[in-house]
Design goal:
Blueprint (H helix, E strand, L loop, with lengths): L1 E7 L6 H11 L6 E7 L15 E3 L7 H10 L2 H19 L6 E4 L4 H8 L7 E5 L8 H5 L3 H9 L3 E4 L2 H10 L5 E4 L6 H10 L8 E6 L8 H13 L4 E6 L5 H10 L6 E5 L5 H6 L2 E4 L8 H8 L4 E4 L2 H6 L7 E3 L3 H13 L1 H14 L6 H12 L3
Parallel strand pairs: 1-2, 1-4, 2-3, 4-5, 5-6, 6-7, 8-9, 8-11, 9-10, 11-12, 12-13
Helix pairs in contact: 9-14, 14-15
């Protein structure tokens, strides 16, 4: 039996965390022994970890002590000491002496933790889920540029979730190692089943759905400005925003400023989101950076027309605008994209049909897991 270690900071409500759970649910536990290291055993996907997975975590719950620890870790003077004298010894002690493969399933903290125990395997694999050129958040919070480049150079394989993510990475770091593209798994059959089993009652207005963490990179503030433009032109619409994050309060203040509380609904985190996406007329992404955009792929499975800013993942998923509407990042361009679908039923139906056609492009969870098996056995 081969032994595998996955590394993640936690299982909060993001796309990478959701993908990892989907992969773990489809693993062959007759052939593989799987450990999962979580620095903090928190997040909305915790209860979805398969029982066969051995979870290793120093912090089992988020209480006052762990909240203070997480806050202290962000302080420049403290974070390196915390990592070196607390987290690294703990990682070495709690994990096995040898694994057939170690997989850090996210950039940033997961990669940094991985480096501390890379000697425990001959096959070190790491995932990049974002466009590191346009959204280089790891350098702001985890690494210097030089440190990050060195960490990636010590990996046997780097896996990217899209061709564009790999292309952007190569323009940032010239690293010679094995690089692989594995698209995020899409369980089309389950998405459709969940959407149809739990129908959502919707108003008569045109529904625009947006899903993601309420963080700066997702640019939900841009969507609020677009809503203000639509309201000024007397369009009858609602925007459903699904997600939680540190910018929630600021976004709600912006809604109040433009008197958009009737038009914009903050629905919080919804799992699964498919009934809401299915009830909406379109799905929109106004991000500054996306490497794959899991929610766009899921919405395509439900035949939803897509409007997205021109970021790496959507450019690839929608094939440069063939399967959805790609816009520039200005409020006016995004607004015009929405209006084109509201005003033209024929155009709307055109993109509905193309969405369903494009959804056949994605790999199933089992196909993705097989690609991971291939990486594990490659060395």
């Amino acid at each position: 039996m081969k032994s595998i270690l996955f590394i993640m900071p936690n299982l909060s409500g993001g796309g990478a965390e959701k993908v990892l759970i989907e992969i773990l649910k489809n693993f062959d536990y007759q052939s593989y022994s799987v450990d999962l290291f979580l620095e903090y055993k928190i997040g909305i996907y915790i209860n979805e970890i398969p029982s066969e997975v051995n979870v290793i975590s120093p912090h089992k719950r988020l209480n006052l002590i762990t909240k203070c620890l997480r806050k202290i870790q962000t302080l420049p003077i403290i974070k390196n000491l915390f990592y070196k004298f607390y987290l690294v010894p703990l990682l070495k002690r709690k994990t096995k002496n040898h694994y057939d493969a170690i997989i850090s399933f996210m950039e940033g903290e997961a990669l940094k933790d991985h480096i501390a125990i890379k000697h425990k395997t001959l096959n070190n694999i790491t995932w990049v889920h974002t466009d590191l050129k346009d959204n280089h958040w790891t350098v702001k919070h985890i690494f210097s540029t030089q440190e990050e480049k060195q960490c990636y150079s010590e990996m046997n394989h780097i896996v990217f979730v899209s061709k564009e993510a790999l292309k952007k990475f190569d323009s940032l770091y010239n690293i010679e190692c094995n690089k692989t593209i594995i698209y995020n798994p899409i369980d089309k059959e389950n998405i459709i089943k969940c959407a149809q089993e739990n129908p959502i009652k919707r108003p008569k207005s045109f529904i625009i759905c947006a899903v993601g963490r309420l963080t700066h990179a997702k640019r939900f503030d841009r969507l609020i400005h677009v809503a203000n433009l639509l309201k000024q032109e007397n369009y009858n619409f609602e925007i459903w925003i699904m997600g939680k994050g540190e910018l929630e309060k600021q976004l709600k203040i912006l809604c109040n400023k433009y008197n958009l509380n009737n038009e914009i609904k903050f629905l919080g985190f919804r799992t699964p989101p498919y009934p809401y996406i299915n009830a909406a007329d379109i799905l929109i992404s106004t991000s500054d950076a996306e490497a794959f955009s899991l929610v766009i792929a899921e919405a395509l499975c439900l035949g939803k027309p897509i409007i997205s800013t021109k970021t790496a993942g959507p450019l690839e998923l929608l094939e440069n605008g063939k399967y959805g509407i790609l816009t520039n990042s200005t409020n006016e361009d995004i607004c015009n994209g929405i209006k084109s679908l509201i005003k033209s039923p024929n155009l709307y139906e055109h993109y509905q049909n193309l969405a369903l056609k494009r959804s056949d492009y994605f790999d199933t969870p089992k196909q993705v897991v097989q690609k991971i098996y291939n990486l594990i056995t490659e060395l």
